[in-house]
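Support request from a user on the community tier.

User writes: "When I paste my structure tokens into the form, the page sometimes reloads and wipes my input. The last time it worked, I copied everything first. Here is what I submitted, just in case something in the input itself triggers the reload:"
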């Protein structure tokens, strides 16, 4: 089956958002994420990231993961082969890559979560489109509870950081071994954050992605896509104010306590609605965004390399710029990293069909299938 050009463009676009959201956690102490910046420009940058980026792009990536699962099922059926062994092997390989990525690059890794949630998606491989949509919808209140809990934990962590000057990330200022030790120390906390922040909505998006494949969402003239596109004004009318409430909670503009927790919970509705807006806009503009397709065709490589470049810029083993730039400058650096990775992918695809890490994942999964 030929690759979907629109899907590759969407993945390339999603990598930009992922980079913008993740970079502060690679470039600043965790304590810096628990409060609002003092400068007006940095405050505006954090607000824009909260409004337009946080939570939206992992939903988009997860949606495409579910769509890709549908592609794998269909490919196996056409070949007359069982889909279970290669999919299980791919999940195991993805989980191993996630562990390595968390320890060696970025403790906020989502690959391990994808591997674990993917096992749940397998049980829904034969589910109808309406059932998949109902399951996805049922995840929204669970996500709201999870986000509200994160708001509560964020308040506790902020108090602890102020009282003890904790969460300084000093290991990232030293050698690569120091940074690795710091990542290991941070990982238990980030695992919990990923479970709450990403888990419910990622699984919901998995289900919607599989439903999208079964309904031919990315096919030319797709009725499913046309329905979503017609709802664009409604999606915007919901997404912008709801995400505005979430951004206000992040910036500390809401009263402490329940109002702030409810502001965090608003992301459960705001993230998927704005992600849907991005899907419609990017797919419509895909013919003009062809430069995104190469990096989108190697999403694992793009994801990992963005983290490696960030480490080389900010950690002590590289340029050592850790905790020297504000939020506005970090948005610019994230865009620059994404641009470098996008251009490198264009050059890479002239000679090789897959990115190096994507090829390595495929090879590892193949070996696991043979071993079993």
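"...and here is what came back when it finally went through:"
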């Amino acid at each position: 089956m030929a690759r979907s050009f629109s899907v590759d463009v969407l993945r390339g676009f999603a990598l930009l958002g992922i980079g913008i959201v993740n970079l502060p956690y690679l470039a600043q102490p965790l304590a810096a994420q628990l409060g609002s910046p003092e400068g007006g420009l940095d405050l505006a940058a954090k607000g824009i990231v909260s409004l337009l980026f946080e939570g939206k792009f992992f939903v988009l990536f997860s949606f495409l993961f579910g769509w890709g699962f549908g592609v794998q099922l269909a490919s196996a059926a056409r070949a007359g082969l069982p889909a279970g062994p290669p999919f299980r092997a791919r999940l195991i390989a993805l989980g191993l890559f996630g562990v390595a990525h968390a320890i060696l690059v970025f403790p906020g890794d989502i690959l391990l979560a994808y591997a674990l949630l993917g096992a749940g998606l397998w049980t829904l491989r034969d589910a109808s489109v309406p059932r998949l949509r109902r399951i996805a919808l049922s995840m929204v209140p669970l996500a709201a509870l999870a986000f509200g809990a994160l708001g509560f934990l964020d308040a506790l962590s902020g108090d602890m950081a102020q009282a003890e000057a904790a969460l300084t990330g000093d290991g990232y200022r030293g050698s690569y071994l120091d940074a690795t030790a710091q990542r290991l120390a941070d990982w238990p906390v980030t695992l919990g954050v990923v479970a709450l922040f990403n888990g419910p909505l990622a699984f919901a998006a998995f289900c919607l992605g599989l439903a999208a494949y079964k309904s031919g969402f990315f096919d030319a003239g797709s009725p499913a896509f046309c329905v979503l596109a017609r709802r664009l004004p409604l999606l915007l009318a919901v997404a912008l104010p709801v995400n505005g409430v979430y951004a206000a909670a992040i910036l500390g503009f809401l009263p402490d306590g329940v109002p702030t927790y409810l502001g965090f919970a608003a992301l459960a509705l705001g993230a998927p609605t704005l992600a849907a807006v991005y899907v419609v806009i990017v797919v419509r503009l895909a013919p003009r965004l062809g430069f995104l397709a190469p990096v989108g065709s190697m999403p694992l490589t793009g994801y990992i390399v963005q983290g490696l470049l960030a480490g080389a810029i900010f950690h002590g083993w590289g340029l050592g710029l850790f905790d020297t730039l504000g939020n506005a400058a970090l948005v610019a650096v994230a865009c620059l990293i994404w641009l470098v990775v996008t251009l490198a992918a264009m050059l890479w695809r002239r000679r090789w069909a897959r990115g190096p890490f994507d090829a390595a994942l495929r090879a590892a999964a193949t070996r696991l299938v043979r071993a079993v």
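Agent notes: The reload is a front-end session timeout and is unrelated to the input. The first helix runs from residue 5 to 27. Residues 161-166 have pLDDT under 50 and may be disordered. Escalated to web team.
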